[in-house]
Amino acid sequence: MTRKAQPMLSQNGQYALDQYIQVLQQVEDLSPVTIRNYVSDLRLFIAWCEGFWSERQADRFFTPRMIAPSLLIRYREYLQTTLGLKPSTVNRTLMSLKRYFAWTRKTQLVQFDPASPIKFVPKEVSPPRHLSDEEEDALVAAVNATGSLRDQVIITLLLHRGLCAQELCSLTRQQIHLGKRNGTLRIVGKRKKVREVPLNTTARSILNQYLGTLSTESQYLFPSEKTHRALTGRALGHLVTKYATQAQVADLSPHDLRHRFGYRMAEVVPLHRLAQIMGHDSLDTTMLYIRGTKQDLQQDVEKIAWI
Question: Mean per-residue pLDDT for 212-235?
């Protein structure tokens, strides 16, 4: 794939760019790729500025002092609407420009940094992966057919308790309480926050079977088969991928199984209770589980179609 020709700059614009290139190469401890990205972002901005002024028959050439926040806002809109760039790409460009203008202010090339008040573009929050009923059935069938009892318990707890990978991997026997009609897990989450969460009949039943096979010398509920220490997050990811591959379920991670639990629970319990169960500090996080998927939204709008 051929590279696009670099945009032509005025003599002033090229001088400003060369000046910054020298700084990046001699002063900053940056990789060649990072320098290339910074330079490319600044070059495109300078070219856009000079083209913008030329279209309005303004006799201007680029210098840092010519840039106002309003012009940077116009450029941000250009990146978003005219070029249709993703928020992450727009924000990377803005970060490059913020870095440049912070340098111009530090070296007193400008008296005011025009980029400092410019806000980044909010990133669109996509709903988590929505595992279907058929995919869950296939995954459970795969682990039941070929997996050990330990692996079956792991998949069951991810689906029926919605634990984070670290929460599951660090579980010990002492964190489990199983009664005749109820059961709880004592979870130590982020920032050592402790919460007790209930276990349903499915989880209690398979845990009862598994605890009877677990060595009394084992500190962790799911010791690594190789090291006998706590199962690592990486090993857990490999385990889920293994059975997902057997079930022909693509791109599945342990966190996707936590999301499956969240989606299913959101259908039957109030959000404030789900937040408590999942250990969310904010209902904004829990709200993700009631956002419609693309398929859900398509089905909703089809309900008012005339044909």
Answer: 87
Task: Tell me the one-letter amino acid at 201.
Answer: T
β-strand 194-198 against 183-188: which pairing, if any? antiparallel
Nearest to 121 by CA among 150, 81, 159: 81
| CA–CA distance, 158 with 202 (Å, rounded to integer) | 12
Q: State pTM to two decimals.
A: 0.60
Rounded CA-CA distance 258/27 in Å is: 46
**Residue 134 pLDDT exceeds 90:** yes
Give the Cα separation of 250 and 270 in Å (integer): 31
Residue 113 contacts residue 58 (beta carbons within 8 Å): no
pLDDT, tens digit, 9 for 90 and up, residues 27-40? 767 888 899 999 99
Domains in the chain, CATH or no CATH each: 11-106 (1.10.150), 133-291 (1.10.443.10)
Please, what is the average pLDDT of the chain?
89
Instruction: Count Cβ atoms within 10 A of the Cβ of residue 77 and give its class: 0-12 exposed, 13-18 middle, 19 or more buried.
Output: exposed
Q: Is the pLDDT of residue 3 over 60?
A: no
Tokens of 291: 């956002």
